[in-house]
Every structure is written in C-alpha cells, then in structure tokens.
Amino acid sequence: MTFNPAKFVKTAQQTWEDKLAFNQFMKANAHLALPFHVEGLEGIVPDQYPGELAIYAAKSHQGKSTALRDVTFKAQKRIEGKPNALVGLVSIEDTSEGTAGKQVKKYGGNSLAYQDDQFVFIGNSFGMSMEDMSQLNVGNIIETLEYGRSKKFADIMQYAHIGIDYAQIIPPDPERRKMNNNDQKRLQIADDVIRIFHACKKFKCPIGLASQALLKTQRDNYTQKMRIPGAADLAEAGELYSIPDIVYAYWQPKHDHPMNTMVEEGNWNFKVEPNLVFVRIVKRRNAEEMGYVGERDVVGRVFPCHIEPNGGFVYDKSYHDKIYLKPIRNVP
User: Fold this and answer.
1) How is the chain split into domains, by residue range?
2) Superfamily for domain range 32-249
C-alpha cells in the first residue's frame, strides 16, 4: 500500500472541524457511549467512548470472559430497535453455539435476546475444519468485522461495541506462525493489541479485549491476601497496559482462599463467597479531562461485586460499607 502523508497532516482548523463533526456523530449515536457494565457503578466509573480500547484482565477462570460477555450482551440490549446499530463478539475460546446458550441463560426464555439480527458472532462453530479455526488472526478478525457490518446486512451497520475474547489465544498472523519462543509470542500479543487499538478508530466504537494477567506470579497485588491484578501483571506484553485507554482487573477470592472463611486484610473484612468478585479500576486515560480527578477519582479504586447466575455483575454500596471499615468516598 502506498503511503499517503496528506492523510496525517491537518491544520488546526481542520482538526477543530473534525472535532465538531465527531461531536455531531456522538449526539446522533448516544448509545455508542458505553456505561460500565456493573449494575450500581454506572456513573461512578466513567463511560467508554467510541475509539477507546478497554482491557478486561484476570487470571485464568477469574471472570474476564464473563465480564466481557456481560459488557457485550448489555451493549446489545441498549441498541435494540435502533436503526443500523450492531454489536459484535469475537471469540476464539467459545463457539457460536456456546455463545447463543449464554445469551438465552442471561435473558431467559427459549429464544435469543436480540432482535432483527443486531448481534454478530465471529469465531468457531462445531464442525469447522482445523484450517478454518486457525485463520482468525487479528488481520482476518478486522477484515471479518468489516464484512459483518458492510456485507452481512442489507444496509451498512454501525458497531456500538465489539468484544474480543481473548488476547493470548488469538492465532498468529502467517509471518509469525512459525515463531514459537516466548519472545515472539510476546511480540505477537503486542502487535495484536496495537492493531485492535487502531481498529477502535476505524469502526468508531468501543472495543473490549479480555486478557489473562500473569499466570505464574503476580507483581502488583492489591494487597498480600487480595491478589487483584495491576499494571505490572500485564507485563508479558507491555502493550497490554500501555496501549489501551482503560484497564479493569477482576479477582475472585474463592480461588485463593477456602470457601466461607473470613479474610481480614488492611481495611477489608469479608467472607469468601462463590459469586464474590472484586473489580479494580487499574487505568483510565483522559480521566482528568473527563472530571474524574480528586474526590471523583476512580483510578486504583476497588469495588466488591457479585456475579449473578445469569452472568450479570452487581455492586451493592451497603455491602461495600459493611466489609470495608473506612468511610467510602464518592459512592452514592
């Protein structure tokens, strides 16, 4: 592809006109500003906007995929009935059949929750060939997402949200397929995250990417007993922390402490429950410009939540007050 420098040079007036045009786009597409997925924390945690990439990080089986599906399914419910609006879920781990089952479980009944085909699944299904399954590298994911919005339907659709599950199992592009050492895998993940970050701008929508935190050791625990991942726990590829606009981390105490025991750590005092999950707001780019500073600052904050049987996340301030012994600021 021939490089065109003219695309990258704009006058101040041109950039301002682009800003006004984007403001108009947002006004006409209010559903593209995505509230935080935890019920009870909307408005406390800032919205995710078109063009922004969020990472949902956790150790294995600690809630990253559950959180990403909660985000995606709730985004789909928000666009029902809105013309030309679409949500996409890319999953290498799950199958299309499995995702349909999770949709039905979440919303009940014997049919899928979405109407008029406003949801597209991109990934594997039972019966696919091994060759097909190995082709969903990031380059092909982006091409398939473009096909899904521009060719699958009678009209060109606008993504309201795209979820991708998850970074470490995305197949390598052809040029990296024969590179098996750890350094090459790290470079592949870094390159994948950068391209997904750019895809947020291409599709003008929020994108969520699930990612494992470090598996062997954690370098940035919230506390000694509460092993909630932090920035350093995404260091297998630095881009997992430095590139995204937003990083959320999830930790389920049941994986580190016996069920029904009491954990006393710092100002926390809580009983280990099967559905208890702690959510940490690790990073939020532009928080200062958005007014989330000082008393409203949420970066670094930790919120105890519960996962409902249907996969939804719920925050209860009274429970937070009960298990955290210091006064909780800025939570209505």
Assistant:
1) 32-249
2) P-loop containing nucleotide triphosphate hydrolases (3.40.50.300)
Distance (Å, whole) CA 164 – CA 196 = 9
Tell me which amino acid residue 231 is: A
DSSP state of 61: T
- How many other CB atoms are there within 10 angstroms of residue 328's CB atom? 12
CA distances from 25 to 30, 161, 189, 205 (A): 9, 15, 32, 11
Report pLDDT digits (tens) over 176-217. Answer: 655 555 567 777 888 899 999 999 999 999 999 999 887 666
Angle at 315 between CA 231 and CA 274, to 5 degrees: 80
Q: Which residues contact 180 (CB under 8 A, 6 or more apart)?
A: none
Is there a contact between 91 and 165 (Cβ–Cβ < 8 Å)? yes
Query: Please, which pLDDT band fits residue 116 given cuts at 50, 70 and 90?
Result: low
Chain center to CA of 227: 20
Q: Give the global pTM.
A: 0.88
E strand or H helix at 162:
strand 158-165
- Cα Rg of the chain, angstroms: 20
Compute the distance between CA of residue 65 and CA of residue 277 in angstroms, rounded to an integer: 13
Residue 39 DSSP symbol: B
From 235, 277, 281, 282, select the one nearest 256 (Cα to Cα).
277
Q: Which residues, 6+ apart, have CB-to-CB distance to 54 below 8 Å? A: 48, 206, 207, 208, 209, 244, 245, 246, 247, 248
SS3 244: coil
The percent of residues above 70 in pLDDT, for the chain, comes to: 89
The CA angle 315-276-222, to the nearest 5 degrees, is 90
User: 144 Cβ partners below 8 Å, 6+ apart?
Assistant: 90, 122, 136
